[in-house]
Amino acid sequence: MTATVSNSLTGALAGQLVTFTLSNENLGTFNPAIGTALTDADGKAVISLATSNIAGAGTVSAAISSGESASVGFTMKGDGGQAGGGAQVTLTLTDVDGNTTDSITSTSPGILVATVTGLSKPAIVTFDASLGDLPIKTAITDANGKASVSIYAGSTPGASSATASLATGEKAEHVFVIGASDVQMGSGDPFVSGKAAVSAATLSAGGTATISVMLQDSQGKPFTEPVDVSFSSTCSKKTSPEAVISSPVTAINGLATSTYLAKGCVGDDNITVSADVGGKNLSATGVVKILAADAGSIVFVDASPENIGIKGTGSDESSIIRFKVLDTNGNAVANKAVSFSLNTDVGGLSLNPATATTNNEGIVQTVVNSGTVATTVRVTADIDGTSPLISSQSSVLVISTGKPDQDSFSLSAETLNAEGWDVDGTAVKVTARLADAFNNPVPDGTAVYFTTEGGAITPSCTTTGGVCSVTWTSQNARPEGQLLVDNSGSRNPIAELSATGGNFYGQKYGGRATITATANGEESFPDTNGNGRFDASEVAAFQGTDVSGQPYDLAEAFVDHNEDGLFNPQQAGGEIGGENEELIDFDSDGVFDSADGKYNGVLCSIPAHDACADGISHSQSINVRSSLVMVMSGSTAYATDPADIRIIDRDGDNLGGDIDINGKSSATVQFTISDLHNQQMPSGSVVTFTTSAGSVASSGSYTWPSSNHNGGRQFSVTLKGADEPDSGSFIVKVKTPGGAETEVVNLKVNIY
């Protein structure tokens, strides 16, 4: 737009400010956006007007400060950008030579060109497209207000909409078409479509090769756009891959190359190469042949299960033994013959098959079947045809009963005297350990059951490696019994805490809870001839006791509340306190069954004799059991009555009174400390000994150990005198793990 300003007398007027305005601001945008310009020496003021995206007619007016004005009409096509903010954006698509186009293909990419007007400085233009690939999405306008980026066809053909936008919101749009390209995949010179090039047609086991393909257009020129090419093979796609092939690979200047590694594949392996270019699926194939590997080693894999039962005992009688054959590169070797043998066949132990062939994973297996004798065995595997012979041996396979026996069952607790009489929630780990008649750990998963009359306990656990643990927790019920002090504070007349350790109360024993663990197992027997079977010649010894002093022949299990060894509700001669003992009724007949005189187990001699349970009238299994006593220790400590404390000093050996010491000589004080039931104080309690006259010559403190001894604990403390006469006090205090502290002894000390 040009406005000319002149005077009728003097002619053209230079340096006049001309202001341009639009009749409708939505129809276009001035450049410069402010809409003003100065006249030159010829009196002319020039400004640019760019069309917007709205078609229509309007007028432009030009005026100077003195009021003179002029106007002119125009018509807009509306093929520009959005008007406003002073900036305007238009967008076009060209080919690589700068020619305007409305389509691109994989072989003919395009350039998006944005033209920005209305701005006096460079601007950042952001490009986007609904289809096609834009490797770079931003560009800066040049001196002509133009910014451009390359756009490629990508993998999906169709109509696409491209946009160019400024940070201030101005935007332009251009619609174009992405067409499919005539790109081919192949290899060779001359080029063969659909064929992949393989660097080595035949590979040794563990060898490598390269697989290559070329992408080219219909004119035979390399397709230069980056493309992801996928490589795969039959062996590489197996569940356990027998080949490794690099994929995907980006084609550079039309060439894509992958590396192939043989890892156990044998024979022809078909290679497949594929890519998607401009909506066209391309593919090529090839073949690589891998030679069979030489066996380099054989390794033991596993035995499942690792423990099997003696034939006829009711447990698993067979185990699968597996080995793996590897080549010299450590890859699995298929189709190799392997022979198996046992290092012993005692008792009819056998395996089947004796020879087998490895599978595609190099795995070969045989099955070991148990015999009639408990033993351990190993399987040896030899690779046929190797020189020197390549072989390996399995781990030890155990053939046993698979059942726990009585004399191999033990029960322990990490603490036997927990602070549990006055405190709820004290937790103690209780552990059961079980083995069979040959002292091999019982099979994993063997169930052990627990019960107690005091506190609470986890009901069961299953073994791992012959061991399992549960948690005992202090809470009600708490077994009541004789108390040291009654409710009035008076001492129980039978509750003597004398210098001799031990429980003088008699039944009932308070604060002592019996934990009993049971498992389905069998009785032990005296195997005097070492043949692993209960023979008729061993019946007399079976009526006696085992090495632990416990009977071989067992009655039914029960929870022995009063620790007298008798089931008090039915057996005579027991002590009080067992009236509510719980029967663990193995045969569910509601009656306590005494020892039956039979060996209840599966290891009777063959043939059996009269002292063997037949499994019909007499069971071949029984509840094996073990018990321990958990002391629910009180938090308050008590000591021997002062009148009964033994004092050995200058006056001799006396009960009660002061501690009298001549000069630097010594004296000994002996007393017993216990809880309210004359039981052990809680494990971890600390007993301290102090004197304000003289010194404590023996240890100044004692930490209470884990113990379920039925009674208090005796202490003997030595005091040493001094050069000068003095008097003071000998004090003994007990502090439990829970923080309860009690002063239990306070005696006068005289030094002469």
TrEMBL record:
Listed Gene3D superfamilies: Immunoglobulins
Alphabetical list of SUPFAM superfamilies matching this protein: Invasin/intimin cell-adhesion fragments
Taxonomy, superkingdom: Bacteria
Limits of the Big-1 domain: 1-75, 300-399
Assigned protein family: Belongs to the intimin/invasin family.
Name the UniProt record assigns to this protein: Bacterial Ig-like domain (Group 1)
Organism: Shewanella algae
